[in-house]
Amino acid sequence: MPTPELSKSLLTSSNPELKERLDNLGKALTSVIEEATKAAMPFIKRGPKSKPWWNPDLSSLRTDMLHKQRKFVRELTRTSREESFLWKKDYLLARNTYFQAIKAAKQEHWNQFLEKEDPKSIFKAMSYTKDENKQRIPSIRSSSDTLEKSFQGKCDAFVKTLFPPPPESEPVSWDHYQEKQ
User: Fold this and answer.
1) How many CA atoms lie within 13 A of 15 on its CB side?
2) What domain range includes position 28?
3) Which of 38, 75, 112, 123 is the most buried (most CB within 10 A)?
4) Is residue 107 part of a domain?
């Protein structure tokens, strides 16, 4: 437990030896924590096929767009909206160019993928484009004991089963009804 005199000497920098020892202790503790973090937490390594359509041109366009965005935001804080219009225009043009280039790169990659002639790529393309949300409803037996196969027949069977008609009741007699006064 540090004494008040040591704490005071550290705060007033009158004891350089203590300050140096504490700095070294802090650096050693920091390096031990960093080594433990590196050993315990794996870093994400992007695989070579994470974005196969990415190219160096897109990297430079992205850098340019972000640079112009920062310039626009900086000018927006310094000046009014009307005065920073040209900066905004530059940023929007760079942004549109960047996203159009991404779209073109994706399209070009898809076309190259489809132009391959090996059977694996053909079936892979079919699996990418196939709608997997189709879930076929099996034939349903309706209340009249018939097997419904059409979509409309299945819908009618569901409606009749889930929403039966209300039960019959006797009509209300209003003969003995008296209004409150």
Assistant:
1) 12
2) 9-40
3) 75
4) yes
